[in-house]
Design a protein that fits this description.
This protein is α/β, with parallel strands linked by helices and about 425 residues long.
Length: about 425
């Protein structure tokens, strides 16, 4: 029989006020905070860990997937491209995108278009340098960062959020807000606010990426569920063999939703065991093989999302969306380009937006929008919208689109 206790009611101190609260300091949260701060808003960014970047840094998924369509055309711009350049400001770990970044004084590419077809606009970055540079950028914009802080509740005033309840080493308190952007990756704020949400049907498989040193050289081990966009050019225009390299889960019997505490702990423990076994096996033939750093968060790809005003599907390749706020290609294949509707970012809670992995997409589309470029695109759109106002149901879409275009974002194909 289940047992319950009654938690006594208590008054919570309103510890601070902010105009825009961004929950989650992954790529989407970083982009949202940058955009809102540049738009003149007082921004507070909450991050449960003690470093920015989420999966891209703490998860060691250090592949900045393509900003292009695989046919030589860049489709993702704005903060998404700014962050790519920031991630390799101290040099790329691999795949420096010379065909896209090397230009003449007049701004023209030094490489032929064929090189941009052959080599997609992607890179591999150092997670630690990227996280530190992102932190410096946010602080320079006046963003308040609260590390070690979880959102654990909301207070609503009608169909809007008036305050967000947080918990950290100082205990529980509340932050009064004008608007909230949920970039938690698991739609935590959406769920707490009573927005309609959905779980990914298939859950998540097991992975645990790590860096290792062997024979004096440091390398990234994409250990389980490694999603790598290949650079091979198509042999002919109709060639459909361009596919991403997708390794399998470390244990096919393990699937986890990403939103259950005990389940997450079990998944991490299982991944650690597989990783340790792998390291020991490698050391049996190479004593110099040692782990340098390991993923410090669960590698959750698709868990819980908002059910928004619009739900985007992968069948909508190149479909015009009247409220498009940016584009994304398909990191797995050449050719597809999607306009992302603003309706995927909001539901019925008027001052709440979702960005990154939290947006309203079908399970099939989720695999496209969960990666770095679309997370940055939706983060920038959310932050820009929050700089305009806090009633996202009635936002002036044309004004938002024009503002995004002025920021260098391409919103239409």
């Amino acid at each position: 029989m289940s047992k319950f206790i009654t938690e006594p009611a208590r008054e919570l101190e309103v510890s601070r006020e902010t105009e825009v609260l961004v929950a989650g300091g992954g790529i989407a949260g970083i982009a949202a905070a940058i955009a809102a701060a540049r738009g003149g808003k007082r921004v507070t960014l909450l991050e449960r860990e003690y470093m920015l970047g989420g999966m891209a840094t703490l998860g060691l998924v250090t592949i900045y997937l393509p900003l292009c369509d695989g046919e030589g055309n860049q489709v993702v711009f704005g903060i998404a491209e700014e962050l790519l350049k920031l991630s390799i400001a101290h040099g790329a770990e691999a795949n420096y995108p010379a065909a896209w970044l090397d230009k003449t004084a007049a701004g023209k590419f030094t490489a032929a278009r064929e090189e941009r077809v052959r080599n997609r606009y992607l890179t591999q970055f150092n997670p630690h340098l990227f996280a530190l540079r992102a932190e410096q950028l946010l602080l320079s914009l006046g963003v308040t960062i609260l590390y070690g802080t979880l959102v654990c509740g909301v207070a609503r005033d009608g169909d809007s959020i008036s305050a967000v309840v947080i918990e950290n080493k100082s205990g529980r308190s509340a932050i009064a807000v004008e608007s909230v952007i949920d970039c938690t990756g698991d739609a935590d704020v959406c769920a707490l606010a009573g927005a309609e949400i959905a779980l990914h049907a298939n859950g998540n498989g097991l992975a645990s990426w790590y860096y290792f040193i062997s024979q004096g050289k440091v390398n990234l081990k994409m250990f389980g569920l490694a999603d790598v966009a290949p650079n091979a050019a198509p042999s002919k225009p109709t060639d459909d063999t361009y596919k991403a390299v997708m390794t399998e889960s470390l244990d096919k019997s393990v699937r986890f939703s990403g939103v259950n505490g005990a389940e997450l702990s079990d998944a991490v423990i299982a991944a650690h065991a597989k990783m340790f076994e792998d390291i020991e096996n490698r050391r049996a033939s190479d004593e110099s093989y040692l782990p340098v750093t390991v993923s410090t968060i669960p590698l959750v790809r698709m868990s819980r999302r908002l059910v928004g005003a619009y739900t985007l599907d992968e069948s909508e390749n190149r479909k015009p969306q009247p409220d498009s706020i940016g584009l994304t290609g398909d990191w797995r294949n050449r050719g597809p380009v999607f306009e992302i509707p603003f309706g995927t970012l909001h539901g019925k809670v008027r001052n709440l937006l979702a960005a990154g992995r939290d947006i309203s997409v079908t399970d099939a589309m989720w695999d496209i929008t969960r990666v770095i470029p679309p997370c940055a695109v939706t983060g920038e759109a959310a932050g820009t919208a929050a700089a305009i106002g806090n009633d996202f149901v009635k936002i002036d879409i044309k004004k938002l689109q024009n503002k995004l275009k002025n920021q260098g974002v391409r919103v239409k194909i």
